[in-house]
Write a structure and sequence with these properties.
- This protein is of the alpha+beta class and about 425 residues long.
- The chain has four domains: about 90 residues, no CATH class; about 90 residues, PAS domain (Beta-Lactamase, 2-Layer Sandwich); about 70 residues, Helix Hairpins; about 150 residues, Heat Shock Protein 90 (2-Layer Sandwich), CATH 3.30.565.
- Helices cover about 50% and strands about 20% of the residues.
- It has twelve helices and 13 strands.
- The strands form three sheets. A five-stranded antiparallel β-sheet has the order 2-1-5-4-3, sandwiched between helices. Strands 7-9-10-12-11 form a five-stranded mixed β-sheet, with helices on one face. Strands 6-8-13 form a three-stranded antiparallel β-sheet.
- Strand 1 and strand 2 form a beta hairpin.
- Helix 9 packs parallel to helix 10 and helix 10 packs antiparallel against helix 12.
- It is elongated and about 150 Å long.
- The two termini are about 75 Å apart.
C-alpha cells in the first residue's frame, strides 16, 4: 500500500509541534537561538534519509519509518512476483523440453533466436546455430520458397539429408518475429502413401475386367434370344457402369494427389468454357431444370484444364442431381473484392443439414445414402473438387439450407487469375 500525504503529515506533526514550541521559548528568552530547533530538525531529516538510502532502517520518528515500511512491503511484493515469474518460466521451459513438436523462435530477419530440444533433434540444430538464418540450415528449395512468400499455410517437406524424414512446418507470427513449428509426420506420410498407391493400383487393375464385363453385357443386351433376361442384364449393366464411374473417379483422385495432372498448365478462358459447361448441364438435366449461366468478368484462369473441368463439372452435376424437377440452377464466374476468381453454383435443391457440411468432401461420404445411389452418384465428386482446388491453391465454400437450396463456391487465388485472355 502507498502512504498518502495525510498519513505522512500526521506522522510529522509531533516533531513540528516540539520544534515550534522550543523555537517560541527560545525566541522569548534567547532570540538568537530560536532557529536552532529547526536546524536540528533538518539535520535529523538528512540523517534519516541517509539511513534509508543506505538500506538501514531509520529511527522510529516522523515519516521515515512509514516510508521504510512501505518500501520494504513493495520490495517484498516485487521479489515474490519475480520468483513467481521465474517459476513459470522454468515450468514453461520444462513443458517445451518434453514437447514432441519442434519450436523455433525467429527474429524479423528470419534468424534463429531460440529452439527447444525437439527442434534440435528434428532439424539437427545446435547452440552455435543461434543467430543464423534458418534457411541456411534447412536447405530445401520448397522450404526456402515457403519462407520467402511469407505463407501461413502448413508445408510438408521430405528432408533428403535426414533419411527421407517428412516434416510439417507451420509458422505463427510473433511481435518482432515469428514462431516456427516443426512436426515429424513420416509415419502419417507413409500410411497415406500406402493408401494412395493401393487405391491407384487397385483401380488400374479393376479397370480392365470391368471394361470387359461392360462389353459383354452390352452384347448380351442386344441379343434377341435373351429378351427374357433383359431386366437382370440391364441391372447388371447399370451396376457395371456405376463401378466404372467409381474406378474412373478413384483414378482421377490418384492423379490429383500425386500432383501430376496432365503436366501442362495453361490459361483457360471461362468465356469460352461456359457454353460447353452449359450444354453438358442441359443434357444432364434433360429439360427438367431452369439453368442460367453467367460470366460477369471475362478473365482467364491459369491451371490444368482437365482438373479445372473436373471441378466445374462435378459442382454442376451435383446441383442437377439433387435439385428437383422445375428447380432453378444458377452458374456464374466473377471476381470478388480481393481479386479472387469465384466459380459459383447456386441451386434450389433439397439442401444439406448443417451437421453434414464439414464432411462433404470426404470420400464416399453421403448425406442420404439411399438417395445418392438412386441419383447415381459415386460419393467422390466433392473429394475430387477439394483436391483439385488444393492443387490450384484454391478453396471450397459451401452454404446450404434444407429444402431451400445450396451454394457451392470454388475460389481461386489472385495469382491464378489472368486478366488478358487471348
Amino acid at each position: 500500500m502507498r502512504a498518502n500525504w495525510i498519513e505522512l503529515i500526521r506522522a510529522e506533526i509531533p516533531l513540528w509541534l516540539v520544534c515550534g514550541g522550543v523555537s517560541v521559548l527560545l525566541l522569548l528568552n534567547y532570540p538568537a537561538w530560536s532557529a536552532v530547533p529547526w536546524v536540528i530538525y533538518s539535520l535529523g531529516q538528512l540523517v534519516q534519509m541517509a539511513r534509508f538510502l543506505s538500506g538501514r532502517p531509520p529511527w522510529p520518528m516522523g515519516v521515515w519509518p512509514i516510508i521504510w515500511h512501505r518500501w520494504q512491503h513493495h520490495q517484498q511484493r516485487t521479489t515474490d512476483k519475480l520468483k513467481q515469474n521465474y517459476r513459470r518460466i522454468r515450468q514453461l521451459n520444462r513443458m517445451l523440453a518434453v514437447l514432441p513438436q519442434g519450436v523455433v523462435e525467429l527474429d524479423e530477419a528470419g534468424n534463429i533466436v531460440w529452439f527447444n530440444p525437439a527442434a534440435e533433434s528434428l532439424l539437427g540444430l545446435c547452440e552455435a546455430d543461434r543467430g543464423k538464418p534458418v534457411q541456411h540450415l534447412v536447405r530445401v528449395p520448397e522450404f526456402i520458397r515457403w519462407l520467402e512468400q511469407d505463407d501461413t499455410s502448413p508445408l510438408k517437406v521430405v528432408m533428403p539429408q535426414m533419411q527421407l524424414k517428412v516434416l510439417r512446418f507451420q509458422r505463427r507470427p510473433l511481435k518482432g518475429g515469428a514462431l516456427l513449428l516443426v512436426e515429424d509426420v513420416s509415419r502419417e506420410h507413409d500410411l497415406w502413401q500406402v493408401r494412395r498407391d493401393f487405391v491407384a493400383n487397385a483401380s488400374h487393375e479393376l479397370r480392365t475386367p470391368v471394361t470387359v464385363f461392360r462389353g459383354y453385357l452390352e452384347t448380351l443386351l442386344s441379343m434377341e434370344a435373351l429378351k427374357p433376361w433383359q431386366t437382370p442384364l440391364r441391372h447388371m449393366s447399370e451396376q457395371a457402369d456405376r463401378m466404372h464411374l467409381i474406378i474412373e473417379d478413384l483414378l482421377t483422385l490418384s492423379v490429383i494427389e500425386q500432383a501430376q495432372g496432365d503436366g501442362n498448365e495453361r490459361t483457360v478462358s471461362l468465356q469460352q468454357l461456359f457454353p460447353m459447361l452449359e450444354e453438358e448441364a442441359r443434357q444432364l438435366s434433360r429439360g427438367q431444370h431452369h439453368l442460367h449461366f453467367t460470366v460477369q468478368d471475362d478473365v482467364g484462369l491459369r491451371g490444368e484444364p482437365t482438373l479445372l473441368r473436373s471441378i466445374f463439372a462435378n459442382l454442376i452435376s451435383n446441383a442437377v442431381r439433387y435439385t428437383p424437377e422445375g428447380g432453378e440452377i444458377r452458374v456464374s464466374w466473377r471476381l470478388n473484392a480481393n481479386g479472387e476468381g469465384v466459380f459459383e453454383v447456386k441451386d434450389t435443391g433439397i439442401g444439406i443439414p448443417r451437421e453434414h457440411l464439414p464432411r462433404l468432401t470426404e470420400r464416399f461420404y453421403r448425406v442420404d445414402k439411399a438417395r445418392s445411389r438412386e441419383k447415381g452418384g459415386t460419393g467422390l465428386g466433392l473429394a475430387i473438387v477439394k483436391h483439385a482446388l488444393e492443387y490450384h491453391q484454391g478453396r471450397l465454400e459451401v452454404e446450404s439450407t434444407p429444402r431451400i437450396g445450396s451454394t457451392f463456391r470454388a475460389i481461386f487465388p489472385l495469382q491464378r487469375i489472368v486478366t488478358e485472355v487471348s
